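Example 3.2
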Amino acid sequence: MQQETALDSSTPPDLESGQPAAGLSWAPGHQHPAHPSHARTPGLDDTERHITAPVLAASAGIRKAMLIPVISALAIGTIFVAVYLAAFHAPSARHEPLGIAAPDTVAAKTELSLNNMAPSAFTFYRYADEAAARQAIAHDEVPAVLLDDSSGMRLLVAGAQGPSTVSALTGAVTGAVGHQVPVEDVLPLASGDARGLSVFYAAFGVVLAGFLFAMASYQMAPRLPLTARMISMAVFAIMSGVLIALIAHTGFGAIPASFGMVALLVGLLAWAAAAGTGVLLRIFGPLGVSVASIVMLILGNATSGGILPATFLPGWLSPLAQILPPAAAVRGLRGAAYFHDADLANALLTLATWVVGCLALQYVLDRVSGRRQARVPAPVL
């Protein structure tokens, strides 16, 4: 004869095993056990059904749940607005390269006038003739050259540098010579990139995806072995590179580099963003979300050069353009697309260094944490 066991209506079944869960009180009318931390945080009640015990166990108290999201969101939003306004509300050049191919008297007068208008705004490069000027523009030595020869004065520009850069240089040269100067675009943007922002949008989207990937990975499996995490990152990076290359290169024709080079640079950027965010989450814990938002999303994209080159950034921001992954990817993509692979090697090295460096740091942190846990004595039963 089967023996039946009566269950107290105040004792709910365990969510995993279906057996009575000891020490938990059953709230009438609820379909899940009351959260154990309710005794510590009176006033909280779980209104969502089917929330698993691990999620409930990680919930914060009333004050933290109310204040921390407000503080974090306000801090990130304030920093975002402050950085972008500081960078782009009234940009001014700092040692921006400008070429001059003109007689010495014209060149000296132009340089003196530009220096008087904006001291330290430009760094001047002299070229012998139009052929040398075009060669310098094509290899990204300078974005523009003021040419004065038998055909008259004109400004040779690389439209591939972006409309903002070309407009700023054209205005400065016009003010220096005292009259409107004809502009000749010797290296225009691709037809699918009329505003010159496709590289920036591609980089921004990939960095955002890497940030979200790392957050999801660490939230779902904070103790995932490093090897498994590396494999997951590699799959994410490869797929990101291929998909963005299909969209930006093949679909819209907005980035006229080779498909393989676009996929490689974008894939490395995705991996660097994910690995960098992961390390910050590993070091700072819950605070790492805010830190990674500031470093990767705000500072990284503001200094990427996708809107204006680093020479137009404030002095305290421009150094970041030499080390952060988004700027390296933008330089590499533009170099591969327009400027005979200028800056490509440096971009690949910077991105690879971020990937390897972050994974190595993650390995060290995991080893240190493992040794600390090994020294903790096991509880006596």
